[in-house]
Every structure is written in structure tokens, then in C-alpha cells.
Amino acid sequence: MTQQAMTTEDGAIPCPFCGLGCDDLSLSGGSDEPRMEAGGCPKAQSGFSLAFGAAAATPAIAGRSCTLEEALDHAAGLLGGARLPLFGGLAGDLLDIQAAVRLAEATGGVVDHRNGAGLTAAATALQSGGLMTTSLGDARNRADLWILVGDVTQRFPRLVERLLEPSQRLHMEGMPEAVVLGEPAAEAPGAALEHLPVPAAALHDFIQRLRARLAGRGLDGEPEAATEALVQRLTNARFPVFVYAPGALGDQADLVIRALGGLVRTLNEAGRAALLPLGGGDGDISAHQVAAWHSGFGVGTSFHAGVPDYDPARWSTGRLLASGEADLLVWVSPLNAAPPPATPVPTLVFGHPASRFEEAPELFVPLAVPGVHRHGVVHRGDGPALVPLRALMASELPAGAEVFEGLAARLATEEQS
Amino acid sequence: MTTVRLTGGRIYDPAHGVKGEVRDLWMRDGHIIAPPAEPGGAHTVDVSGKVVMAGAIDIHSHIAGGNVNTARVLMPEEHLAEQARYPQYPFSGAKWSAFDTGYRYAEMGFTTVVEPAVLPLNAVQAHAELAAIPIIDTAGLAILGNDDFMLRLLRGGVEQQTINDYVAWTLRATRCLGLKVINAGGAAAFKHNARSFGLDDVVPMYGVTSRQILQSLQRAVVELGVGHPVHVHCNNLGVAGNVETALATIEAAGGLPMHLAHVQFYGYGDEGRRHFSSGAARLTDAINRNPNITVDVGQVLFGQTVTISGDVLRQFDARGIANPRKWAVWEAEDGGGGIVPFKYRENNYVNALQWAIGLEIFLLVDDPWRVFFTTDHPNGAPFTRYPELFHLLMDRDYRNSWLERIHAGAADVALLRHLDREYSLDDIAVMTRAAPARLLGLPDRGHLGPGAVADVAVYSEQEDKAAMFRRAHLVYKNGQKVVEDGRVVNVVKGRTHAVAPAFDPGIGDPLRDYFHRYHLVRMENYALLPEWLPRTIGSELVVH
Question: Which of A312, A373, B359, B394 is most deeply packed, by most CB within 10 A?
């Protein structure tokens, strides 16, 4: 399907390449030879230029070029014979993911996202006690103290510019304070921020100590000056916000998030405070949301038994591939050109047209990149907001939804015949 | 398309004054038609002895959007499934999914359902979920009243015309059918650490009261000529003594149309030993005296549920009663929401009285055209329990048998034991068909006159009204049979309804500037263009 490009030079072009969902970009060169204007970030620059240059990719079976029809016939054959297909990656927009989840249900497969570990940590923390959260825009306007937990400035290159630096805010004069908890990355845009070095492995303990002090409880040993100072700042702040990327918090992510959640609940007994969890991009929040309204549960869900079975540990990509329980990997990744996980399991890649492979997969179908080759929509990393995506150039690349619906139709026909 | 004739059914079509008369009903090309002059070739379906009504309409049911979806994720243990309802249809094993919502409503003969809380920032997700719900038609109500732009306009003392333009712009930007106001100013006040917020409380930083916000939005809806009156979630939800708030809000409506949602949650006095009593008599007296007011009840039915609301201040306040003990509160640009699981227990005084108050409101409002069936799904109970509610209202003996089971103290003080009224099938048809269509401004449904969409439900009458309404004998959606013997037999795609009132495009300049200054989204990327939803998430939009 050829997608008509829309206007491109208005400073309101959305970027699908990270969870910040910036929509203030400008392109030049028209739809024939689009180029990103300055003002984006390295992720946007590389994301757009990679996609702009890859519009002519063709499908391939085991590395040999083929037509889309041949590719879909081949995929339908493998899907029809699979015992437990794993729909992984899911690095696409809402439309790609929705169609993939529907195909997964129709074929009795599993859905997981490449950022599944972070999504699961966030969901587990929510399910075990609940969380108080805010959004990017709300925090931008009224947070007077930012606590950046773990690596966020590197994951979201414009976070400091977009959230901490704006001069016009609601109900607030001057700039917010910001503290990074964790080991700073020297090159990241937040390198100039104040740091409180806390090793990743000690984060949970540090947050629990903060919470205890905020609740007025004594701790063993001498009070640590850094903890006490932060307690004081949290107490004085009108609206402290804790921003973190669940996927960047390591193995203890669910514990760290639960501890942060408890800290924020404590702060809200007398004042206001909130968490600001940020999805890591690649459509992970869309995957989580789409999975939830389709199945009732997040990713890490299997449809193998004819009803959704939510068990993120059991149905994780890593475990299913390592154990060999999944006998077909359907790697959906139109937003991300990185290769699928190396596995002996036959792999069908429905991916970015510039996808790189160490070894040619069983099948490669290049898809339109949402926000470059076609219209679409993706969630911003904070959840409530969605970013409408626009086609920026004419393209013959098929949309993921078109391909997955075509596959579902082929499988339905085979079943009847 | 073939002509279909339903023959021998007892028709209940209150919009045309038809009360159980045996008549034929004709459908062609998705619409009800007058009996054709030459009926040759029609497909005849014998529904002798059955009850025939238009498809039912639910005006207030939380079926889509981020708040609902987070509740699904918060409560995985509540919707585990062991068996698919319809193995041949997608996601029929996924309880509480968008798909299950469509199947379950259709089984009961519902064909149009309104999601009453669409946060503009989240409108695309709400529409994506609505588009995924099979069979039924849907619509959303857009939330305003805690948004900074609106509060700024009021603080600046702008003309009503500017408010009207902004409301119209919002309804178009969100592709919604009407306007919702949730505890006007309450979520904005909560951002400044308010813990309670009443009708005459002032929103910090803005110097405007909840009353001013509500009245200006109400007036905008009236002056824009939007079919559905402003849909109001009052202040002080769930607080003992809050019947005063409801009465003050009715007074504040000033004789202009206003819909008060889930009023059971505002029917509370603070009398008696437990400082919690029924305010149903006072509330319904005010409703009866003010013909500009419509209400839905938000009936409580006993059991586990989860409350989902955009009233972030009240939901935060309710955190202590979460059962199981977990809850979520989220805030965003211009609003927020809260999710608090709850179990209504029949042996709990307050819960039992809530149950009785809801029924009292149903039975004490004289005019069935002004009181609507809701459980505020899922806040009072899941929508799947409507049939039990119909049974309670249609059968006094059944209702009285419940008075023996609930908390004795609540049963003693409730008015309910003195109320003998029983709803008739005609009442049910008014309250679930004719009146909702009129209230929503959807003249093509809720009745069985020629030209109406052929959304038709056929029921087998029986003593057990719950059984009768739980599984419709037949349901047609746009003239296509979708349910037979209470089972979905055909999955069609529903449509989404919206309005598009005209406004002065000059409002775009201050809005664009506002978004530029304070939002992380450009105005151009916030407002949904008419062609965009159909082109992306595939909504079939019908603009009224």
C-alpha cells in the first residue's frame, strides 16, 4: 500500500524512536529526499536516517529474495505447523502490535516484548500494592524536585532539555532541583546534574532507608549525611517526582519500584509526590496496553490453552528460547533494526527494512516503519499520552497490520480446507 | 439485502406508545421499515409470545481507556479464565477484555454503550479500545473541568462564547459524543494537596469555584446545541451527608439540562448512630421537582469489584478501604484517575444501605424517562449483573427476600421495605431504550419506528426476570442476527458515535500558543483529525 506523505516542514513531526515521544521535529528535503533538521537528538537522527535510506528492502526466505506473496505463504505454512509460536520483539506502533497480538491469539502463541523484563517489573510492583504515578507533562509543569533513579538521561536524550529546562511552567517560578540517584554516565546529557552515587545493588536498601527516615524512624548507626539531606529536601519540596525506567533498574527492578512506591505513598500522607515510570521506547507501553485490552493481562501471556495465561516468568522470550519450548520465533520489529535473539529456533522476522542479521533468518519481511513510511500511533513512555505518527515519505513497504491480517486470513482458509 | 419479518412478537416501543401489542416488525438494509406493500421474498422469523424491544443502550459504563486498562492489569487474579466463551471468536476466553465486553453486552440485548470518561490526552487509546469491542456501537464522553486551559479561561474572565469554542474544539479533538465533568476542579485542587473539595470550594491558583466551572461548561453544552446534556460526576462522591452536594448541584443547574451520573453514590445522609443514612427521599424529591435533571443510579450489587474513576481526589481518599489492599492513583496533564478494588458485602451496614439507596432512587423517581440503569460499571457492580437488577425492580417479593438477608440495621432504616412499586416491561423499555436514545441525542435508535437502525432484542418472558434478560432469545445489530438463544452467533463490527459542533477557529491561536508553552504535545498532534481514526485504528465514526 502506498502511503501519501504529509507535510514535513512544520516543527511538529513526532518521533517514534524513544519513550519521550517528542513531536517538535522538522524535516527538510521534501518527501523525496527527507532529512532531519537539527533540534532532535542522536536517537532521532539515527532512527530517521536509517529508515529514510531503507525504503526499498524486499522480503527474503533464508536470505533469498522473494515476493511478499511467497513470503506470506511460507510464513503461513510455518505458523500453521508450529506448536508454540513466540511473538517477540513487538517493537512497533500500536497498529503493528495489535495485529501481532491478534495473530498470536489465533495461532495459540505467546506474546512478549523485547523490554518485557521492565514491563513485568512495573506490572508486578503495581499488582503487589499499587502505585501513585504522574505523567511527563504534569511533572514538567509542577515538579519542583526531580529524583532521577538509575539511568534515564542516556535512555531519553532530551529528558533534561524537555523536562528540567523549560522556563515556562504552571504555578512555578524558577527551575526545579534535580538529583540523580545512581552511577552517572559521563557523556549523558544529565552529566552536569547533581549526583548522589548509589550503586545499583544498593538502590533498594537506600530507598527503604529514605522511607524509614521520612516516617520518622531511627536507623542503626550514624545518620548518613546524604540520606538526611535528601530526606530534608523531599520534605520541603511541594511536588517531588521520582523518574525511572523500569528496564534500567536491573534484576531487582520490581523491588526497587515497590520501595519507591511505598516512599511516594508515605510522602502523600501529608503532601504531594509521584512516581514517573518511563517505558523505554520500541512501543513497549503500547505492547503492554494493547495486550491488556485484548487479553486482560500484560505481555508475558500465552494463548496456547485457548484462554489467556498470564505468567511473565514462564512465558518470557529468554526462557522459551533457551528451553526450546517455543518452536517458532515470530520477531516483530518494524521500529528497531537490531537483530532478533540468536537461537536455533526457526525465526520469522517482520521487521525494520534495514534490519541487520548475523545469520539470515528463515524469513524476513520488511515492514513500513511507523512514523516514517506510514501513519500510525504509539504510546508515550509515561502511559496516558499517545503520539500520532505520520508518513513522511512515499513507500511501498507493507504495514505490519496488513501483513498479519493477511497471514491470519491465509491460516483461516487453510483451516477450512 | 433480504427483508426480515419478525412475526408474532409482543412489541414494547415506548417512543411510539406501543406496550406489548402483537405486531410484525420489518427490517431491511440495516433499518426498521414500514410493512412493505409487497412482502414477497421476506425471511420470516416466528417470535410468537416473545417480547420484542429495540436494542438496549447503556449511557454510562467504563469500558475503555487507560484507567480501565490499568485496572485490568492491577487485578489479574479477578479475571482468570478456564474456558473460552466462544472458541470460534477472537479473545472470547479473555474475561474483561474489549472483546468480552462486546460479547457480554450483546448476549443481554445491548447494542449501544457509552464510555463516560475519555481524558482528551488519552482519547486515542479510548478510541482504539472502543474500535476493538465487537458487535455493539459505542461513544465516548470527553472530560473537561480540571484542565488548566479551561481554568485559565475562567480565571481570566473570558466571555462564555470562548468557553463554548473551547468545548466544541475539545469535542471535535477527541471525537466524542458529549461532555463529562468529574468533580469540577477537584483533580486540579488535589495537585495542590487539597484533600476534600466541594461545590463552592475554590481551586487553588485559579480563584474559581467548582460551581463556576460546572455552570460554564453546562451552559456551553446548551448553547452549542449538543444533544447530550453535560454529564456530571458531582463533588464529594461517597461521603456521608453528600446528599446536600447533590441537592446543591441540582439547584446550580438553574433549570438547564444536566445529567447527574451514578447518584446512588450521592444519596447519603449522615443521620443515625452510624452517621450514615438514606438520602434517597430528599434526592428523588428534588429530581422529581426539576424536569431539567436526569440521573443514572450507579446501583451497588454485592460482591467483588474494582472502582475506576477520574475523581482522583476521592479515589485517593478511598485508599484505606481497598479490598484487596492495593490501589493505584495516576495524574496527568488536565486530569487523572484512581483504581480502588472493593468488595460490597451484604452484611456490612454501609454497603447494605448503599444497595438499598440505589433501589430506592429507582423506585422513587416518578418519571422513567429521567432515571437510567447503570451500575457505573464496574464501580457498583459489573454490567453483566444488570439482569439481577431488573429482577430486583420488577419483582417486589424477590426484593423483599433480600431485605431478610442484608445487614439488619440497614434493612431497618431503609425506606425500601415500604416501597411496593414494581417495574413493568414498559418501564424497562423506556429506561434502557427510548429514554437513553433521547438523552444521548441519537434519534436513530432506542425505538422501532421506520428509519431506526435495526438493533432489536427479543426475549423469552419468564418469571425469573434475571434469566429472561441475561440471555436474549435473538439480537439483531443493524439488521444482522448476532445472538441466538443467548449465544453470540455472528461477530460484526460496531461503530463509534461523535458530535462535531461548530466553533470559531480563532480559538486555535491561543490553544496553539498554550500547547507550545506548557505541553509536551503540539496542538496539531493533540487534536484528532476526522479522517485519522478511520485511517489508523479503524474506527467507523458516525458524526451526528
Answer: A373
pLDDT (mean) for A370-382: 97
> Which residue, among A302, A307, A310, A380, would best test binding to B if mutated, counting the most B CBs under 10 Å from its CB?
A307
CB contact under 8 A, B125 and A386: yes
Per-residue pLDDT tens over the stretch B386-423: 999 999 999 999 999 999 999 999 999 999 999 999 99
Contact between A377 and B525 using a beta-carbon 8 Å cutoff: no
CB-nearest partner of A375 from B93, B329, B535? B535
Q: What does the pLDDT read at residue B486? A: 98
ipTM: 0.96
Percent of chain B's residues with pLDDT above 90: 97
Residue spans of the domains in chain A: they are: 59-115+282-416, 120-277
Residues of chain B in contact with residue A136, where contact means CB-CB under 8 angstroms, are 520
B517 chain-A contacts, CB cut-off 8 A: 168
The shortest C-alpha distance from A81 to chain B (Å) reads 19
B321 inside 8 A of chain A by CB:
no
- A112-148 pLDDT, tens digit per residue, is 999 999 999 999 999 999 999 999 999 999 999 999 9
Per CB-CB distance under 8 Å, the chain A contacts of B147 are none
List the single residue in A with minimal CA-CA distance to B523: A12
Q: Looking at the complex, report in whole angstroms how far the Cα of residue A327 sits from the nearest Cα belonging to chain B.
A: 23
**pLDDT band with cut points at 50, 70 and 90 for residue B343:** very high
State whether residue B163 sits within 8 Å of chain A by CB.
no
Q: How many cross-chain Cβ pairs, A to B, lie less than 8 Å apart?
A: 191
Within a domain: B35: no
Would you state the CATH architecture of domain A120-277?
A: 3-Layer(aba) Sandwich (3.40)
Query: Which among B520, B524, B528, B529 is the top mutation candidate for probing chain A, defined by the most A β-carbons within 10 Å of its own β-carbon?
Result: B520
pTM for the full predicted model: 0.97
CATH number for the domain running over A59-115+282-416: 3.40.50.740
Which H, E and C letters describe chain A, residue by residue? CCCCCCCCCCCCECCCCCCCCCCCECEECCCCCCEECCCCCHHHHHHHHHHHCCCCCCCEECCEECCHHHHHHHHHHHHHHCCCEEEECCCCCHHHHHHHHHHHHHCCCEECCCCHHHHHHHHHHHHHHCCEECCHHHHHHHCCEEEEECCCCCCCCCHHHHHHCCCCCCCCCCCCEEEEECCCCCCCCCCCCEEECCCHHHHHHHHHHHHHHHCCCCCCCCCCHHHHHHHHHHHHCCCEEEEECHHHCHHHHHHHHHHHHHHHHHHHHHCCCEEEECCCCCCHHHHHHHHHHHHCCCCCEECCCCCCEECCCCCCHHHHHHHCCCCEEEEEECCCCCCCCCCCCCEEEEECCCCCCCCCCCEEEECCCECCCECEEEECCCCCCEEEECCCCCCCCCCHHHHHHHHHHHHHHHHHC
pLDDT category of residue B314 using cuts at 50, 70 and 90: very high
B532 touches chain A (CB under 8 A): yes
Query: Predicted confidence band at A200 (pLDDT cuts at 50, 70, 90)?
Result: confident
| pLDDT tier at A188, thresholds 50, 70, 90 | low
